[in-house]
Amino acid sequence: MRLDKFLKVSRIIKRRPVAKEVADKGRIQVNGILAKSSSNVKIGDQIKIQFGNKILEVEVLELRDSTKKEDAEKMYQIISEKRVENSDNLD
C-alpha cells in the first residue's frame, strides 16, 4: 500500500494531499529510510513522521483499503511520540 494512502486510511494524517506534502518535504522515514508519498508500506514497517513540533513513530499492524474511524487505530501501534524544539530535526 502507498504510504500516503496508509496515513490517510489509518487517520494518522487526516487528508491524503497533506500526507503527500509531508512526505515530499522529507519528513517521513520508513524503516529509517527517507520515504516518498508513493513508497510502499507493509505489515511490520516502522514509520517515523515529523509534523509541526512532534515526532511520531508507529509500527504498521494492518493494511486496509478503507476503515471505520473506530478501527483506524488498529492499523498501527505507537512506538514513541515526542515533542521537539527544532522542526528541522529528523534523526
UniProtKB/TrEMBL annotation:
The gene is rqcP. One of its GO terms (molecular function) is tRNA binding. Key component of the ribosome quality control system (RQC), a ribosome-associated complex that mediates the extraction of incompletely synthesized nascent chains from stalled ribosomes and their subsequent degradation. RqcH recruits Ala-charged tRNA, and with RqcP directs the elongation of stalled nascent chains on 50S ribosomal subunits, leading to non-templated C-terminal alanine extensions (Ala tail). The Ala tail promotes nascent chain degradation. RqcP is associated with the translocation-like movement of the peptidyl-tRNA from the A-site into the P-site. InterPro entries: RqcP, S4_RNA-bd, S4_RNA-bd_sf. Associates with stalled 50S ribosomal subunits. Binds to RqcH, 23S rRNA and the P-site tRNA. Does not require RqcH for association with 50S subunits. GO terms for biological process: rescue of stalled ribosome. This is RQC P-site tRNA stabilizing factor. The lineage of its organism: Bacteria, Bacillati, Bacillota, Bacilli, Lactobacillales. It comes from the Bacteria. SMART domains: S4 (SM00363).
